Amino acid sequence: xxxxxxxxxxxxxxxxxxxxxxxxxxxxxxxxxxxxxxxxxxxxxxxxxxxxxxxxxxxxxxxxxxxxxxxxxxxxxxxxxxxxxxxxxxxxxxxxxxxxxxxxxxxxxxxxxxxxxxxxxxxxxxxxxxxxxxxxxxxxxxxxxxxxxxxxxxxxxxxxxxxxxxxxxxxxxxxxxxxxxxxxxxxxxxxxxxxxxxxxxxxxxxxxxxxxxxxxxxxxxx
Amino acid sequence: xxxxxxxxxxxxxxxxxxxxxxxxxxxxxxxxxxxxxxxxxxxxxxxxxxxxxxxxxxxxxxxxxxxxxxxxxxxxxxxxxxxxxxxxxxxxxxxxxxxxxxxxxxxxxxxxxxxx
Lengths: 222, 116
Fold this sequence. Notes:
The structure holds two protein chains of two kinds. Chain A has helices at residues 10-20, 33-38, 68-71, 80-91, 96-109, 119-125, 131-149, 152-165, 170-181, 203-209; strands at residues 2-6, 26-29, 45-49, 55-61. Chain A is mainly alpha-helical. In chain A, the strands form two sheets. In chain A, strands 1-2 form a two-stranded parallel sheet. Chain A has a two-stranded antiparallel ribbon with strand order 3-4. The longest helix of chain A is centred in the middle third of the chain and has 19 residues, at 131-149. Chain B has two helices and nine strands, in the order βαβββαβββββ. Chain B has helices spanning 11-18, 48-55, and strands spanning 2-3, 21-23, 26-29, 32-34, 59-62, 67-70, 90-92, 97-98, 108-113. In chain B, the strands form three sheets. Chain B has a three-stranded antiparallel β-sheet with strand order 1-6-5, with no helix packed on it. A three-stranded antiparallel β-sheet of chain B has the order 2-3-4. In chain B, strand 5 and strand 6 form a beta hairpin. In chain B, 44% of the residues are buried. The chains are: A mainly alpha, B alpha+beta. The interface between A and B is large, with 86 and 54 residues.
């Protein structure tokens, strides 16, 4: 296994990597090049690559265990937006057991595994890339470059455009939102990513607008 | 890939950023090659405008800061034009460069995550 943190800064990923004490390569991608080259649009997602360097499954949701948030009753009295966010989380399709079993089968049987796809199937099952989504990638990268070289404000125009052009790319949105909703000096990035004065969208309202938790992930077709 | 007016783009840098290798016969990624006459210069740099047109790559420009970015190819209409895995240089926990190709001969489950 190889992990890649599609993150704001390497330092944001370090504490999580260190806590996991990984024995596998733990990589960091602050430019979202893996979005562009492998088709990631959210996290966690994964691709499978065989011994020859050929993809045998395209980018798809990669949960391998059921989130405890999904099966637990939502406590009463939570703030409205937190309660609604948890309701959307509980709607997200869960094929974690099946996906974990598929990985194990592929690890054992390789190309004989029914979950190992042909090159044509991999390409066909990868997400659509039209001019708008390709343009969104360019806008995101331009914004990220300007954020680093000019300042946060210089990125905003381009990240807004990336969000408009490819609304289902959650890594573009979540990175932008967390930068404006995380309080200065906070130890962790803000996961709620609520309404803010910089970007039109926010996590909860965008999830609902795009079809709810049911449509939030790229469900593996096993 | 970020583009500036003053920095010519080498074929190596173009390949690193986009996965497309520019050869005399054209632009190739995996088993796919696209004719792109005039795109490769004798000094090893490339004509990005020709490649962008041939590969269906949009270019966006921030005129105020004089910088542009080129997006991925739309040729196949899919995120993956080929099943041959791209091999970008990423960094590991300690900032050291790492390529997935260093793991050839082993299966790789590449899992994306983030702290947000």
